[in-house]
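Re: your question from the hallway

Yes, I did run it. Sequences:
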Amino acid sequence: MRKITIDAVTRIEGHAKVSIQLDDNGKVANTQLHMTQIRGFEKFTEGRPYYEMPSITARICGICPISHLLAASKACDAIMSVRIPETATLLREILHCGQVVQSHALSFFHLSAPDLLLGMDSDPASRNVLGLLEKFPDIARDGIALRKFGQQVIEGLAKERIHPSWVVPGGVNTPLDPAVRDKILSGLPDAKAIVRRTLKFFKGMLDQFKEEIEHFGNAPSMYAGLVDAAGKLQLYDGGIRFKDADGKIVADHVAGRDYRNFIGEAALANSYLKAPYFKPVGFPDGVYRVGPLARLNVAKNCGTSLADAEFTEFHQRLGKIVPGSFHFHYARLIEALYGLERMEALLNDPAVLGKQIRAHAGVNCLEGVGMIEAPRGILIHHYKVNEEGAITWANLIVATGHNNLAINRSIQQVAQHYVDGNHLQEGMLNRVSAVVRAYDPCFSCSTHASGQIAMHIQLFGAEGSLLDELKSA
Amino acid sequence: MSKVLIIGYGNPLRSDDGFGWHASRLIARELTGHNADVITCHQLTPELAEPLSQCGRAVFVDADAEGEPGEIHWREIQPQAPSSSALTHTCSPAGLLSSAARLYGRCPQAVAVTVTAQSFDFGDSLTPFVSAALSKVVERVVQFACPDELRSESQGM
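Structure:
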């Protein structure tokens, strides 16, 4: 048996390693995704006051701090047993839309577009956003402008792009300035135009990726995402809908406080990333996917006009249930459009300029769960506190954790199709990395690991000796 | 006078690595009301190409690892195509200028001012040598940003 290790996987958030075990004929026998570092937020927050959790847990990630800020604040709202003011709900959701737009722009334009536009087999030295910038300046400009818009929404509302303290238990800490609302609204037409032309461009490219579409993690799995009471896509609120691989709803409107009835968490050897599974099916068969693709698979529709038109076309082209993980990219663009339209609707709600923005209370419940759809999928913060409000236990289930089992299966499928251990080429291993990137994983979040962005692939021989390796950076 | 953009960058939780961060905050205070923009950030990112393309002159303020602690280095930056890298988390001032020219058709005249760090350890304050360089750098950058105003002030004294 021989083994390839990809260490580290590039153009992802966080630090990951992939090992590929070959059989005596040089064919892929087994694969595994490893998270080799741990950050320990769940443990070291014990003893801290619950109201510090939004600020502390936002530090888990520099890409999606808003997601942690919101999930933590919702968990604190539950501990305080308050229903936050309507204006605060609107403002939190607008902030979240800004986060989704900037994060999806980062994932598509900066991290994955180099593979899509420059080619999976192109020179790895220039297969990055800088290479994109040289060869496709129009696309690069659009990517920069869209991400900037999302960041400006965050900065306009919360005053800081990263780690703002504006969202607090009970609501937010300042009302929306009408001038900020007008500025965001004035930028929306250009932002929507960028996403629409990118969608048009991307759909026109799909035929170039028939092989990747067929082999990029299209194994059957369940899907999970938040929906509202009518089954519409929800990013800030709602309950979890689980669908099986055939599209049948197997659990619906699961409230955050009930997640443990449906989600189990297993530990995998050689990885600090937990492996959540659908409890009624059990481990490891209860594999499900979260994130943009899963959300569009579980929702009835988006609820905004442009995104709904794209949603309909997406399913007409690809089926009622879209299994191919390559289509995370497509779904991500549709969600970016939804995020912009939803933001517009919320900003035009007269209540958005209200001054009642925060509910004040102490500890009224010794346990709280906060749940939202982070850009990469469902994010759950679950805290227990003592009567003084000190954290006694915390559990975080992050999107990439939900996807752990599915990512592992996708890696195996891609490796088995593309990797020939007798004739190893960089493009083969890049496809293994690319399927990981399709999920837009955030290992900084999901493992709580303090690390750098990198990937390492190693190829081990049948006798266990290192035959070849590919390292980024 | 064309607009000046000052970009101070670094990690303020890594002692002297936060030099650019600390300096740009002081510079922003000094330049309030002037035709200048100040951006404070942890690292250079491709998005900065766009604001760079919209200014006439630019200053990058950062910590440096070469030289004696507290040494101030001032050098002109010329556009240079971004270096080949598998990662997207590192950008250079020269690469950003090149990107600004490539993407937006223009890039500013630019300089980099750096101060040699003594420590990159965990910590939210500057070491004494580097701290001593702070006011000199701020003064020089402000003078670069609006030389006419400063000259007339000093002539009036």
